[in-house]
Design goal:
By secondary structure, the chain is mainly alpha-helical. The chain has one domain. 48% of the residues lie in helices and 7% in strands. The protein has 4 helices and 2 strands.
Length: 119
Amino acid sequence: MKVTKAIIKKKEKRAKKRLLKQQLEEWKLKIVERDNNRCQMCGKELIKSKSRNVHHILPNTKLYFDLRSDVNNGILLCPQCHRFSPNSPHQNSIYFAEFLKKNRSEQYYYLCSKITPSL
């Protein structure tokens, strides 16, 4: 089989994808450990791994790619607080920002310093 540039590029892309997935898994474990298996909004203990939702505070996009595996850009939440409650980060981002500012101010101000202004 002839090794072409396309094959090499495809293998490099797969390897990069595996590395990013591994980094994300390590990031999640660090967040769970730091937050002591507890939802940071309601305080519920999260014993089962399926009940743990590790949330990126700043979105996991190209704009904030450098923060994708930054422990300060994550928070452990139960499924209810993560997605479904009226004050979840997905339903009410303003409330969530205020929650962070009040309860996790060091993390809040760290992330504020990382936000790049839109031009």
